[in-house]
UniProtKB/TrEMBL annotation:
Keyword Lipid biosynthesis: no
CDD domains: INTN1_C_like (cd01185)
GO molecular function: DNA binding
Domain of life, per lineage: Bacteria
Keywords for the protein's UniProt record, in alphabetical order: DNA recombination, DNA-binding
Name of the protein in its database record: Site-specific integrase
Any single biological process term in GO: DNA integration
Sequence similarity: Belongs to the 'phage' integrase family.
Organism the protein comes from: Candidatus Gallitreponema excrementavium
Pfam family, one: Phage_int_SAM_5
PROSITE patterns per UniProt: TYR_RECOMBINASE
Domain Tyr recombinase: 168-346
Length: 352
């Protein structure tokens, strides 16, 4: 194991070798033409090199990184959100950590502090309990990563009860709602594709991220089955296509014929090309169709899960179709519907 300073094109890097594997990391420092300034830069580079060597040794021998453990919690979280999407929950919770934590260091994190922070989120902010728990999930994931990287010895979140959220009734489209949406066709070609993609999700349960990346090669048209690796979970799903789903694919073929670019390898080329989520298009389309439920992409996925359960499918089948690793995730999508409750009561034996 070794860490050396390596300079290339005036940039200062660390050349790291562990178990025969070598890689380089940029220090962010640049060689200065001024000799005195350059001596300071090289001294700083040596400090970075030494700290990196200590961190690698700590990781190798399973002990806490002494330098990393003294890092302020806020600084650590800022590093973690650096490559996260703009709307990632960790970015939101970081704002509250900055308000509450001060200069608290990673080594000072404790179960008591976690409880106090959770109480702060639920009692001294405008967050709902559900939102606070979502933010805490992102926070706990970041802390677990700190444990894996030997920045702290034990996860302080262990044993701390999660924030209890309020159960909300998940809405879904009825068959009459779906008919209204089918009968309302926007004039714009792009909006027509948004309509097709949404209805295709209603019939297949695919997420919008999977709709964006769905290629023609993912579909076996002879057997009418989609075989695709999900973007979110990396799990493969195998979804038989209904006649209604096949009709949408025929409609999309006409749209692709009007396009002349490389995106036509995708089932939904317009959706693939745009970076926006197109939620406003869904909302406007829903209003034009006379649907009272607030439209969003996830509504289609939840509708698929609910309607297929009402049709008699068991929860394990729905789990496979949705591509969930755990059954408890599926149960959040598919609560028992009024129809199932009525069927259960009607099946109660008559007692004379």
């Amino acid at each position: 194991m070794g860490v050396k300073i390596w300079i290339n094109r005036k940039k200062i890097y660390l050349s790291i070798t562990v178990n025969g594997i070598r890689w380089r990391e940029c220090t962010g420092l640049t060689v200065s033409p001024d000799k005195k300034q350059n001596m300071k830069v090289l001294r700083m580079a040596e400090v970075i090199r030494s700290n990196k060597e200590i961190s690698l040794a700590a990781y190798r021998y399973g002990v806490v990184d002494p330098e990393g453990s003294r890092m302020p919690l806020v600084e650590y979280l800022h590093r973690e959100v650096k490559d996260k999407p703009k709307k990632h929950s960790l970015r939101y919770v970081l704002k509250f950590v900055e308000m509450f934590a001060g200069n608290l260091k990673l080594e000072s994190l404790s179960p008591q502090w976690i409880e106090e922070f959770q109480n702060f989120l639920t009692s001294r902010t405008e967050l709902t309990s559900n939102s606070a728990e979502v933010y805490m999930q992102a926070f706990r994931s970041a802390i677990k990563k700190a444990v894996r990287n030997n920045l702290i010895i034990k996860d302080p979140c262990l044993g701390v009860k999660h924030i209890k959220g309020e159960e909300k009734r998940k809405e879904y489209l009825t068959t009459s709602d779906i008919k209204l949406l089918k009968d309302c066709t926007p004039k714009d070609l792009f909006k027509q594709e948004i309509k097709n993609a949404f209805l295709f999700s209603v019939y297949t349960g695919l997420r919008v991220s999977d709709l964006r990346t769905l290629k023609l090669e993912d579909i076996n048209f002879s057997t009418k089955i989609i075989q695709k690796q999900q973007i979110k979970t990396s799990n493969f799903v195998y979804i038989p296509l209904s006649e209604q789903a096949m009709e949408i694919l025929k409609g999309q073929e006409k749209i692709r014929q009007k396009m002349d670019n490389e995106k036509t390898i995708y089932v939904f080329p317009y959706l693939c090309s745009t970076r926006c989520h197109c939620n406003q298009y869904l909302i406007d389309w829903g209003k034009d169709a006379g649907v009272k439920i607030h439209m969003g992409w996830h509504l289609a996925r939840h509708t698929f899960a609910t309607l297929i359960l009402e049709s008699g499918a068991d929860i394990y089948t729905v789990q496979k179709l949705l591509g969930h690793r755990e059954l408890k995730t599926t149960t959040r999508y598919a609560k028992v519907t009024d129809k199932k409750i009525r069927e259960a009561i009607d099946a109660f034996p008559l007692i004379s």
